[in-house]
Design goal:
Number of domains: 2
Distance between the termini: 96 Å
Shape: elongated
CATH topology of the largest domain: Immunoglobulin-like
Structural class: mainly beta
Order of helices and strands: HEEEEEEHEEHEEEEEEEEEEEHE
Number of strands: 20
Helix content: 10-25%
CATH architecture of the largest domain: Sandwich
Length: 324
């Protein structure tokens, strides 16, 4: 083989194996928001830009509050969650319900049964007209290396972000289905009239799975509504109240395995009840949010564990007891 041919092959090899791919690019989404917890358990939200830089192979979040850089190769999973727009009384009002999703299983799987109702029925029952926003959480291969955060984006940006994330991370993308409650007649709950005292705990206990029980973890995100800090949100499991939260608190409970009606009750005059039925298994854990709408209603949602833990990281523990 002549020297000129060898040089030509070497040049071709360099082009094929060392050059940047033609598709490498820097894609930026500038109208997003980042939400995270501080070390003193306060939740912060601020404007940000989300950038996929194929040249450096990094995900970047440019924000004055919390700038972030994550190598593509360090990403273990990307969760895309929903936010909702709820239409009531003819007026469209947007609220962030956080994470309205199933509990890691499709229909027929663990905890995903909404007995007697389909997802469409539940959406109609709570008057939800359209899903408008997504939240994105990135989990890395080294848990604990950075504090968790979510990126909140409009649905138009979300479609493009999801497409780009799928191109980069493939099977490591998790897009759960929606699981939200339907309206329930308060009179059907035996414990609807019970009264409770709620105090803010100084400690922040972490729930642990038990092999003989089903673990229920529930948080009530803060509501930007005057006076809402005093509202109580009860969580019923069939005939009993198993948790009582205020906005900005969390609680957990252990129940026997079986079929349950889980219902969140807004514990003030005229408060509604919202929930669903599902089957709970021993040795399993289930995560929920007691969301508060702009019209002072509660909506119960099932959620991925990391999303609820983010809420808990900025919340206080609810110490509650039933009044005589």
């Amino acid at each position: 083989m002549s020297k000129s041919i060898m040089v030509a092959f070497a040049s071709l090899y360099a082009v094929l194996f060392f050059a940047e791919p033609a598709t490498a690019q820097r894609v930026a989404f500038k109208d997003v928001r980042i939400r995270f917890n501080t070390n003193d358990r306060k939740q912060v939200e601020s404007s940000a830009s989300l950038i996929f830089d194929d040249t450096s192979r990094k995900v970047l979040v440019e924000s004055g509050q919390k700038p972030i850089q994550i190598n593509y190769g360090d990403v273990a999973q990307v969760i895309f969650d929903w936010r909702l727009r709820i239409h009531r009384r003819g007026a469209a009002k947007e609220i962030g319900l956080g994470t309205l999703v199933d509990v890691y299983r499709k229909s027929g799987g663990r905890g995903s049964e909404s007995i007697g109702r389909t997802i469409d029925d539940r959406l109609a029952a709570t008057e939800i007209n359209e899903l408008t926003n997504r939240v994105m959480m990135i989990q890395t291969n080294t848990p604990g290396s950075m504090s968790p955060f979510v990126i909140d984006m409009g649905i138009d940006d979300a479609n493009a972000v999801i497409a780009k994330a799928k191109q980069i991370f493939g099977k490591n993308i998790y897009i759960p289905d929606v699981q939200i409650g339907y309206e329930i007649d308060k009179k059907s709950l035996p414990a609807a009239k019970t009264k409770h005292a709620v105090t803010i705990g100084k400690d922040h206990p972490e729930p642990q799975v038990r092999p003989d029980k089903a673990l229920i973890v529930v948080a009530c995100p803060k509501a930007n509504i005057p006076g809402s800090f005093a509202w109580q949100m009860k969580l019923h499991a069939n005939d009993s109240v198993i948790a009582v939260n205020k906005p900005g608190t969390y609680s957990f409970a252990y129940v026997d395995p079986g079929e349950y009606l889980l219902a969140s009750q807004a514990g003030f005059a005229g408060g509604n009840v919202n929930g669903f039925k599902m089957k709970l298994e021993a040795g399993s854990d289930y995560y929920f949010l007691q969301n508060i709408t702009v019209e002072n209603r509660t909506v119960l949602s099932g959620n991925p564990k990391p999303i609820v833990l983010l809420e808990i990281g900025g919340a206080s523990f609810s110490e509650w007891k039933q009044k005589p």
